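FIELD: query
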Amino acid sequence: MSRAVSAILALACLLAALISSSSASNLYHIDLGSHQKQCYFDYLNKGDRFDMSFQVSSGGDMLIDFWILTPSSQMLHKITQESNSNFGFDAIEEGHYSYCFLNSMSGAVKSMSFISVGPDERKLFKEREYESSGGNTEHMRDIYNLIRALSSNIHDIKDGQTLNRESLVNHKATSESINSRVAWWSVAQALFVIVASAIQIGYLTRFFEVKRLA
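FIELD: result
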């Protein structure tokens, strides 16, 4: 398991634990059958913050498609064939935002978990945390600072992994191109040797036939 996945899971578990302690947990476990799509909706006012993360735990290649649509059906975010991801945004318009998961490539049923944190969860979390800390807002501030730091680290790691993946793809393409050229050059050399050998054999055969006739 990569560091980014571990970090995302750690953040998701932390958020789930904190929010569930406030009776406001939006941690879900679902199964996606072959070519099955499941969508969920959250109502946001303009400027509201919404964060979510998901992790596929089992089933085939464990890769799914995921996207988020605005109330006006504009594509806000989309990823294809990933086993985990996290994404957050500030609502650009008021209305119901939809986010969907699709198992498009495998016949296996895929089990996954996701957590969503919107304004309602944050409000309840603040209220419950304030009550449990006896009005100590410093404790709540430390937790939110920790979450923000984790989120920032996850984005840095994910960016690094994206660059490494692109570099790997480029190196793989270059390697395959070189291997292909070497293979074709070897075939060309073999054909050249065969043709040259055939010409030499034909020449020698005619040479000895001329000598015999003479």
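FIELD: remark
The chain has three helices and eight strands.
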